[in-house]
Amino acid sequence: MVPFLQTIALLAFAAAPETPWHEFRGPNGTGHYNGPTLPTEWGIEKNVTWKTKIPGTGWSSPILVNGKLYLTTAVPVGTSEKPDQELRLICLDAKTGGIVWNDLVFLESGAKAPNIHKKNGHASPTCVSDGERIVVHFGHMGTACYDLAGKSLWKSQKHPYIPLHGNGGSPILVGGNIVFCCDGTDSQFVLALDLKSGDQVWKTDRKTPARQKFSFSTSQLIEHNGKQMIISPASDICAAYDPKTGEEIWRVKYPVAGWSLICRPVYGHGLLFFSTGYVTQHLMAVKPEGTGDITAKNVAWVSKKFAPNTPSPLLVGDELYTISDGGTMSCYEAKTGKVHWAERVKGGAFSSSPILADGKIFVTSETGHGSVIEPNTKELKVLSESDLNEKTFATILPAGGSLFIRTETQLYRFDEKK
After folding, report:
1. Where do the DSSP E strands lie in 359-409?
2. Architecture of domain 2-413 in CATH?
């Protein structure tokens, strides 16, 4: 009788309805989940529906499309000190965790590969999908498009640049185009490719004055006062681009030089929120309007203390939440920048971005320590804690009442066991 009931329970979990999560940080890149209630506790043996060992290494977050999970990985070839890397796209069945297909996208020469930062890898950008295709991006190594069954539709390696520390920024979909940033040591540009063909639609040089020009940001499409624009942080500047032509609309300068931009911006209350990168990071709120250099008149507020370098900010109602790489979570009044509180979250260092689900904030540290936090303006209130005891840089994927979490070696699915 007990095994039968367990089987029925697993079938119920497997049949949970899907919640769209087709890009880094989910719908519109906001980190907001709307769907069935999620488990608030998880662990190596806690609420595990399945776990699957992922070959190779990668810090891209999984996405979910039509019941299938897609993520990238880099598999070393041989045992040399700098081996070649098979850059692969993997599809898994969300119900069972089984690997459906695993395709080699590009082969990266170990001898020519850039040195990789300890917080990065050869497969860091998250895939993006329009519901019919999967676009996979490996930074300077190129971009490719697959159908959902694993058929390669096109590959492009026509836009090389010299990276520092590997690749990072994820592609986004804007209309019928794929848009991503290429900020290397030799050239810096924003690029739009046609989703169906992979052909270049537009390319815009950054023309950044930065001394350290490399960055890894993920762009954000917003609509402000009825006008769409692509927001893309870069070294020393954050700029807005016309989605159709790529023409720069405006730019804002940072209070001090900033580079290695990683966080994805968020938008709300008529303001754009973003961090300015290394080495003296600031959190900025900017009115995204006007043309040219808008620094003098459109910066609403700036905060220096505990600004994040890697985890993206999270907007929850009237408050903006951030978690620094060192593990301090801050709660701001979004419109004014007033700090309600700033307190340490257990788990050490943080790289993954927080998400909002069921009115709660979910976040995982680099050691795999998970926290569920109640949003409020008075104090840090941790509702529950979990631990996977393994390096975790990828952002949580919530879908259909399940949590999907990628660690250094595994992909987990967690469901509330009742």
Report:
1. 360-364, 369-374, 381-387, 397-399, 402-406
2. 7 Propeller (2.130)
